[in-house]
Fold:
Amino acid sequence: MKKIIVVLLMVICITGCGEKKEELKSEGFTLSYQNTSFTLGELFDVNKYGTEYTYSETESCAFEDKDRIYTYEDYEVTTYTLNNEERVLSIYFLNPNMKTTEGLSIGDTIQKMQELYGTDYEQDANLYTYKKDHTNLKIIVEDEIVKSIEYYNIVE
Structure:
């Protein structure tokens, strides 16, 4: 009887941990592009983002290794190393070909931004920051037009 109780407790613990991991995956902003979903903070897989890219790196002021920058045709991915794992720090749009999951792209109006994301943002001059769990969506607007879009992971 004691063995059955121990086994049941182990199953409950394992099931509970599995559910928590699934919840963590759904937190924050995600980006869908060409039928692929990108999550900030996920392990970086260079092949997931595309085959043609340029690569550069810079000393990291916040992490244990270098920041790596992978520049693709329509976007740039910056990664960081934490516990010997390369993870996605940010995704920066390079042109209007990229759209957020909700449909915003460079060249759209501030009105469209507010229609898609609302007005619950922090504003610092022309930088609008939407926060969702451990991620930010940073949008720069000039003359009522979106000029820059970046998804950014907040790493604690």
Remarks:
- Residues 65 and 76 are 19 Å apart (CA to CA).
- Strands lie at 30-33, 36-39, 54-59, 66-71, 75-82, 85-93, 122-124, 127-132, 135-142, 145-153.
- The first strand starts at residue 30 and ends at 33.
- Residues 1-26 have pLDDT under 50 and may be disordered.
